[in-house]
Amino acid sequence: MSGSGRRITDEEINELVSKLQSLLPESRRRNTGRASASKLLKETCSYIKSLHREVDGLSDRLSGLMATMDSNSPQADIIRSLLRS
């Protein structure tokens, strides 16, 4: 995988696919053996897109909340400190 030119083995690919499958909520719920690599990659892309949508939605909600909040309030200070972490 590094720049050494070494080929990745089928065993390493299978291990990576298994690790990826364990990270996907849909695959964990299904838990019916190993999915094909192409199906798993499609699920991964779909999951990442849904996470992006969720982050965008939360960001919009937070922006709306901040717009209605007194910028000098203790709550605004807490939110700002959390965003900086």
Automatic annotation (TrEMBL):
GO terms for molecular function: protein dimerization activity. One of its GO terms (biological process) is regulation of DNA-templated transcription. Residues 1-51 form the BHLH domain. Gene3D superfamilies: Helix-loop-helix DNA-binding domain. InterPro entries: bHLH_dom, HLH_DNA-bd_sf, PRE. Signal peptide: none annotated. Keywords: Growth regulation, Transcription, Transcription regulation. The keyword Transcription regulation applies. It comes from the Eukaryota. The keyword Cell membrane does not apply. This is BHLH domain-containing protein.
